[in-house]
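Project channel, design review

CF: Before we commit to the mine drainage metagenome constructs, I'd like one complete example in the thread so the newer folks can see what an input/output pair looks like. Taking Metalloprotease MmpA.
RD: sounds good, go ahead.
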Amino acid sequence: MIFTCLFTFFGKPSTTARVDKVEAGSAAAVAGFQVGDVVTAIDGQAIGSFSDMQRIVSVRAGEQLAFTVKRGDAIVQLRGTPELKEVKDPFGNAHRLGVLGITRQTSAGDVTTERVDPATALWLGVKETWFVVDRTLAYIGGVFTGREAADQVGGPLRIAQISGQVATIGLAALVHLAAVLSISIGLLNLFPVPLLDGGHLLFYAVEAVRGRPLSPRAQEVGFRIGLGLVLMLMVFATYNDILHLAAS
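CF: and here is what came back for Metalloprotease MmpA:
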């Protein structure tokens, strides 16, 4: 809902997926990208802006992607594999993302804002919500399988820091962050952990299978375990926050 309102009132900002610089020795250089290329599709999915391309590349590290590129009047097919690297955002926060080694030099005149109708805003909101859900679940799964680092888990201190940083960009960016946090927290609340809403759903499911509810003692033990898990997560997130703030 928040994303839909965001697109309705602020529109959809975008910049052409143009290549302004190719880093020497990067995945983009190996793939054959050239300055002036415009990426129009990745694996058959249409690319409307540079942020669309970044979004796909950032989560597909180590996977070979097929790029459809407009080079002058010609259409060129390239294949490249994003590399997993630690990059820093404009505020100095480190993130591990898939990168090609392509730079887009954006000026104020390059950014266009497309006004969308309510139906389109709703569809864009659904797509944005699904992206947040997909990436949240992928990250959690990656932590348990060792593909992702747990030090990216943040708590209230990190949220406060990032909120302050994002607020300097503008209201639209702050609303976007609020939507991401709302979806992520809501999704975590649905996990089958006693004490959370997902835990209650788990108890209801067990009751439906058994034909009778769990005993008060069993429910109490479950809630105690759930409380312990939640407290452990909060302590771990706060510990990460302190380390992050100390290093920044």
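RD: helpful, thanks. The chain has two domains: 2-136+169-184, 190-247.
CF: The longest strand covers residues 65-71.
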